[in-house]
TrEMBL record:
Monomer. Signal peptide: none annotated. Its EC number is 3.6.1.56. It is an enzyme of class 3 (hydrolase). This is Oxidized purine nucleoside triphosphate hydrolase. Its cofactor is Mg(2+). Oxidized purine nucleoside triphosphate hydrolase which is a prominent sanitizer of the oxidized nucleotide pool. Catalyzes the hydrolysis of 2-oxo-dATP (2-hydroxy-dATP) into 2-oxo-dAMP. Also has a significant hydrolase activity toward 2-oxo-ATP, 8-oxo-dGTP and 8-oxo-dATP. Through the hydrolysis of oxidized purine nucleoside triphosphates, prevents their incorporation into DNA and the subsequent transversions A:T to C:G and G:C to T:A. Also catalyzes the hydrolysis of methylated purine nucleoside triphosphate preventing their integration into DNA.
Length: 185
């Protein structure tokens, strides 16, 4: 019998602004000040609002949390990560991740995030979600994928991780948000 979910995963986005510097590429992350994941260093992002596209949500969240402004069409859809929290199913999230190669403005702290640039080769993985060590550097190295992250009972450790590279087979039962992934549709 098919498993029926009690709740629908929350649809969220993450943004990865990228900047060239004399010492190499850097990405913008930030210390989350409140809400889900507070105290961790995370990428800017959040929930997709009703009627909003993933791309539109990414641009809005980036502006709200960091002050950076980007044009929606310049964002590059790079991965989807399905976060599953068996110990707290209401926290399940389907996350679309965008690279942000061009933007204007300077990052500034918000109530949500204290942003800072990090070298791609020296990510602050000890202060991030444990699972991000499994997928973030691969994404920044150019891989494109869907990944499934199942958290442990503590809602922090990684119980299971699997990855499916584009354009191979999709993760079964993942809700469709293919509109942002033209190479898949
Ligand atoms: N295991 C995990 N690893 C990771 O790297 N990021 C995760 C994660 N689980 C959730 N996230 C991210 C995805 C999403 O962008 C974010 C949570 O969404 P929000 O920032 O919107 O949550 P908040 O509780 O702050 O809500 P609001 O402030 O009400 O929007 O956490």
């Amino acid at each position: 019998m098919a498993h029926r979910r009690a709740t629908t995963p929350v649809q969220v986005v993450l943004c990865l602004p990228i900047q060239e510097s004399p010492s190499g590429e850097k990405i913008l992350l930030g210390l989350k000040q409140r809400g889900f994941g507070a105290g961790r260093i995370v990428a800017p992002g959040g929930k997709i609002e009703a009627g909003e596209s993933p791309r539109g949500a990414a641009v809005r969240e980036l502006a709200e949390e960091t002050g950076l402004l980007a044009e929606p069409e310049t964002l590059q859809a790079a991965a989807r990560v399905y976060f599953r929290f068996p110990g707290q199913p209401a926290a399940d999230m389907d996350c679309t991740i965008f690279l942000v190669p061009s933007f204007s403005g300077e990052p500034a702290a918000s109530e949500e995030l204290i942003p800072a640039w990090y070298p791609v080769g020296a990510l602050p993985v000890q202060k991030m979600w444990e699972d991000s060590a499994l997928w973030l550097s691969r994404l920044l190295a150019g891989e494109r994928f869907d990944a499934l992250v199942v958290l442990g009972a503590d809602n922090e450790s990684v119980a299971r991780f699997s990855m499916i590279g584009w354009p191979e087979k999709r993760i079964p039962a993942a809700p469709a948000t293919e509109a942002d992934f033209p190479d898949l549709t």
